Structure formats: structure tokens, C-alpha cells
Amino acid sequence: MRNALKARRENIMTELEKTTEVKKHIAPGYKYISELGSGNMGEVFLCERDGNKFAIKKFRKFERTSDRESVASKFLKVTNKAALIIHPNVVKIIEYGFPISTETPYIVMEYVEGHPLSHYIGSNELSLQKKIDLIKQTTDALDCIHDCGILHRDMKPANILVENKTGEAKITDFGISSLLEQNYTTTDNLRGSPAYMAPECFESVDKICRASDIFSLGVLSYELLTGIRPFYGETLAEIMNSIKNDIPVAPRKIISDIPENVQKAIEGMLRKKPEERLTPQQILSELKCVAK
What we know:
40% of the residues lie in helices and 15% in strands. It is of the alpha+beta class. Strand 4 (93-97) and strand 5 (106-110) form a beta hairpin.
């Protein structure tokens, strides 16, 4: 019993020491407040500087040191592009770095106090019109990201934040995580979240394009409005097969209040062939026809 208690105390102290280390070395000049979330690629922290709050994403330590120079160059190139984006529906990047001493890239972003879009799926917290408005905002923001030469590569509800005060959508986590994942992951070539990926993404990384992000936007739009995903499978193979071959049930057959133009826009986003999918401008044109 004593040995078990001693081991438990030692484990607690070890975790405290790790937490203290994290707090000290998130990013130069920022004070740790709390952890906002974590995932396969790293952790996101709420920090403070000069009385202002920021969200800092700190990626896992890059272990393959022989490739560090190449990875750092790619990271800085893509993040520099992302930092130049100024759009009301895109999370602003404040600063970033890839310290040689820690081998852990980090990005400092504006802090968005709110919930991810996934929080609202299947709930009645937002009206149908508000959900359509969020899709409009996200489409316009994605168009801006593409115009800046960046592919998101992981468009999903968890990567779209809805600000509490303004109710505005904010796209986050674009391009950079997928870029680094290519160097962290050696088991497969998947980049993104399978349930939201376009058919071509399962074939080759080289086939990922703007239209791939549009397909993902179609999946999350369908899910936001109907409460269910258009494609389903218990395993990765089943999800892949569904995305490649299944034609989803028309959204209006699930929620009859969905306007015809919105259904048309979603169907246009979910076309199997990339070249046949609607462009952001075409999507917005359809959505503008929806009466408020």
C-alpha cells in the first residue's frame, strides 16, 4: 500500500514538473494561463502578454533532426503566407517560430473565445439561417486562403470557431499542421480527417487541390445543416468507399426547411470529380439567393 502511494506521488510530481516545463517554454514573452486543447500534432495554450490573451499552438518536438532544415524552411514559408492573411473569418497569426534549441515549432494566434462548429452540430442552439450564414462566411474565408496560395487540407467542424460575442465564424489550423504531419508521419500518406476528405485525397497527396477543400466544406455544411454526415463507415476502408462511391441523401429529405439553393450548393460541393465542383464564387452566388 505504501509503495503504491509513493509511486502515485512520484507520478503526480513528474506530471507537475512536465507542466511547469511547458509553462516556461511555450513562446518567448508569453505567460501561460491554461491549456485549451491537445491533439496528435501538439497542444494549444491560452497565454497572456501585455494584458492581451493569445492562443499558442505548440507542435510536438520534431525528432527527425536530419530533415530539420527542410522542415523548418517549409514551415516558415507556409506560415509566413498564412500570417499575411487578413480576413474577418480567418484566425489571425500574430507570430511564429521554429527554435533550434527546442525543435518545437509554435504559432501565436489571436484568441477566439467561443466554440468550434462541431459544438453546434445536432443541436438547436443556432437557427437554420444562422447556420447558412456561417457557411457563407466560411466559404468566403476559404476563398481568401486559396487566393493567398494556401490549401487548408483539413476543413472540418473542429477547425472552424464561432466567436461568442459576434457569432462570426473563424477558420483556423490551415495548411501548417498538414505540412508538418508529412514529416511526423511515416505509416501512410493521409493528410487530414478521413470523414471530411475528398475522393482524390485517398489516391495521392499530389492530387490535393482547392477543389479538395471545397469537398470538405460540402461535407461539414451538410453535417451542420442536417445533423448527420453525408458519408459513413465503421472503418477507414468503409469511409473511403462511401466517399468515393455513395451519393448522399438530399439534405431537404432530412430537413425540409433547407432552401433549394442551399441544397444545390452542397450538392455542387460534393461532386466526385474535382473539376466539376463549384467554386467559392459559385457557392456564394447560390447562397445569396437564400432569403434572410
